[in-house]
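Predicting holo structure, S-adenosylmethionine bound.
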Amino acid sequence: MSETELNLTLSKSTGLPRKRFYRARAHSNPLSDSHFPVPTSPSHVDYSLHYPHYFPSSGQINSSKKIQFADIGCGFGGLLISLSTLFPETLMIGMELRDKVTEYVKERILALRLANPGQYQNISVVRTNSMKYIPNYFEKGQLLKMFFLFPDPHFKEKNHRRRVISPHLLDEYAYVLGVGGIIYTITDVEELGEWMRACLENHPMFEALTEKELEADPVVKLLSSATEEGQKVARNGGLTFQAVYRRTTPS
Amino acid sequence: MEDTTTIEEGETNKDIEVAPALIAVHPTQKSVAVAVGSDLRIFDIEAGCAASLVDDLGGPFHRDSIRAIQYGAEGKLFVSAGDDKIVKMWSTKSWRCICTVCSEKRVTAVAISNDGLYVCFADKFGVVWVVDLVGFEGNQTLVNKKATQLLSHYCSIITSLEFSPDGQFIVSADRDNKIRVTIFPKSPLDGAHEIQSFCLGHTEFISCLAFVCARECLQSFLVSGSGDSTVRLWDISSGDLLDNCEVGIKAGLLESNGSTEQHDHAVTDICTIQDGVLLAVAIQSLQGIVLMSCNLSARTLSVAKVVSIAKETFIPTSLGTSPSSRLLWMVTGVSNLPGFDYLSFARVRVISGFDVEQEPAIIEDNKIPGGDTLLENLQGSAIIDEKIFLAAAEAVKTAMCNLLIKKQYPAEKREFRKKTRNDRKVKF
Ligand SMILES: C[S@@+](CC[C@H](N)C(=O)[O-])C[C@H]1O[C@@H](n2cnc3c(N)ncnc32)[C@H](O)[C@@H]1O
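Done. Tokens:
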């Protein structure tokens, strides 16, 4: 993206991209066929495109540095931005299905990089359907953390299989998470909160973090405060339901 | 909606209903099975006559196109399943249907665990189901058996399902270019949650899977065929791609500059011969088969030769062999052919001579085990008009493309679809 293009959509007062240029549909159907490019395999992910600071030239995949955090359904990217400075040496990616929202996050990150030289080089975003293409992005055991913050609830019984946490999808998440890796989930929809907790609880490769561990983890505090959706819920005084689980070795 | 083909919408195109004829051979070549449309035909080679299938539920056994047939490794069990959402398990001794299981969706692939205790089947929505036959003695009929979910490819059509030769893994391949290797658990009814690897590299749908393992070699390797006109060799424990053979180009079907439509030469079936030193490969539009050799110590695949079928238009839709015989069985045919009166036509041919000294060659009809009687039974009619073969192969090709190849809308059209959407505005 050229600089002039970028400037056009940045707000004069804040230097951040203006949301009204990024109107998007409320929901995409995750079951549909896609038209965005999908990397053939994790080794085909072009890190130089996402993290030019760490990977100055493309095609050079010798670095052992890999993406370790994934924010699934990242929306407008608030969590990534908070995590970026908290874990400045960790590469993270947001996965988002809506193209306009993805474009917004891209420009938001570029603007932050411009305004804060040397910072925000470790975060990026990709437009994809996480429910279909997680194995195309991450190798076995590559991830340390996965985030599912305020996912779409899909209330109807027949749409439960569109939920981004499900018993079968947890098999894939268990595959890309290393042993000890953590899944963070939060929602303001009680029914969905119960569903996510039950899916994790019943899965043979996940165990709940203890109260103590939750308190000690600085990331837990961000779940309800760092994202746009979380802030909206907080403004309206809504309740939230979180489930945080660790990847274990199957017995 | 911007995105186009939702499999949820269901397929209404009539072309999609055309199903290729299938063939399977008993592990010791006691019998050969052919499925054409909803017709299941078994020829008992030992007895020299057609096997008569018995089903307590009465006939017809299947009410819509059969999409998968499979003998168990021990040869006691046979499974048939397809578009009627019915999975039938047969005793190969009595040819009695010992168990009928209903599926929620159309069935696209089946696999039987090597010990014969579990039957797995995959549906059009990417779910693999398992039915246990633990404690089954071989002569009773199992009623009220239900399938439970084993694993799932999120909303993709599963095209092939195989157990690894050591029984440790179940391998599932899909329309989204993905092969998943999952540990087959001790209690499969609780689900198979531990993924060993994904084999990623194909750039089109996967159509078929097969295992190769040399006799002295304890390790086995996976081969896969795809709509991208390649056959690939994989290490399933790591998911590593060991070799990639552009069989469409090597067999002289495709220009290496890609001037021919790639989809015309999708690999449709792979069959291992002689423990996998040799592979027989069926390719769309190819009249015959490609023989590939697999060098397991060098971990390479190469085209050994193309066996053409002279004097007859014969593009195999399915291949079968038994470990004990050195024969490759082939069938071509379709469930129903638009514009032709023939119903459920099929043609069976056999290739022999895979031993080192010989040249593989097509066997004359009367030299096939079972001879003319077998052909009459499996083909459904004696002589078939030449023209039909080509039309059949074309129909199968169209159907496969419609089902498995993603429709790419030109960019302008996509833009237009976006612009005419009325659900674009949201509050932030
Ligand atoms: C309610 S929003 C929450 C966004 C963000 N996590 C937050 O807390 O503000 C859910 C997001 O998930 C995205 N999404 C839904 N299904 C998805 C999928 N299959 N793959 C990637 N993103 C998805 C939606 O487009 C939407 O932006």
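The pocket of S-adenosylmethionine is lined by residues A 28, 30, 73-75, 95-98, 101, 129-131, 149-152, 164, 227-230 (CB under 6 Å).
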